[in-house]
Design a protein that fits this description.
Strand order of the largest sheet: 2-1-3-5-4
Structural class: alpha/beta
Number of strands: 5
Number of domains: 1
Largest sheet: 5 strands, parallel
CATH architecture: 3-Layer(aba) Sandwich
């Protein structure tokens, strides 16, 4: 079951926590602007520039914000998206998916109830990542047989 924050209840759009490492900083900054232009409430958890940082620190910030219900969904950007997804998935209640296409984003939501999307800032163009994020944020979880599978995933923790 996904949590709904006041922002989602009031405007119909999920609130979004977002962060990156240095490799994803440029695309993260663009996504913050893009999402705000689309009417989303965005919490930018850093970094504030493209100086070298350790991605697990920023993945933990987003994952913790989503897991605590302070944001509905999370977006992470690093060089490949792989490290961020691995780190975020260490936080209880997080189902982070490393996604490179909008179709994968839709399936991550529909079938896995993913609550964090992890993107590649080096191998995926910013326009594609924008489409991925909008798809991720606007796609609902299908439940049903998928709900039983998500329950089994959550029980692994």
């Amino acid at each position: 079951m996904t949590q709904t924050t006041t922002d989602e209840a009031e405007c119909g759009k999920p609130s979004v926590a977002i962060a990156s490492d240095h490799a994803g900083y440029e695309q993260k900054s663009r996504l913050v602007t893009f999402l705000r232009q689309q009417g989303y409430t965005v919490v930018d958890l850093g970094p504030d520039d493209d100086s070298r940082v350790d991605y697990p620190d920023f993945a933990a910030k987003v994952a913790g914000t989503v897991a605590s219900g302070q944001a509905d969904k999370g977006v992470l950007v690093c060089g490949t998206g792989i490290g961020m997804a691995i780190a975020a998935n260490k936080i209880a209640g997080i189902r982070a998916a490393n996604v490179t296409t909008a179709q994968m984003a839709a399936l991550a939501r529909q079938h896995n109830d993913a609550n964090v999307v992890s993107l590649s800032g080096r191998f995926v163009e910013s326009e594609v990542n924008e489409h991925i994020v909008i798809t991720f944020l606007s796609t609902d979880f299908e439940g049903g047989r998928h709900g039983l599978r998500v329950e089994k995933i959550d029980a692994l923790g």
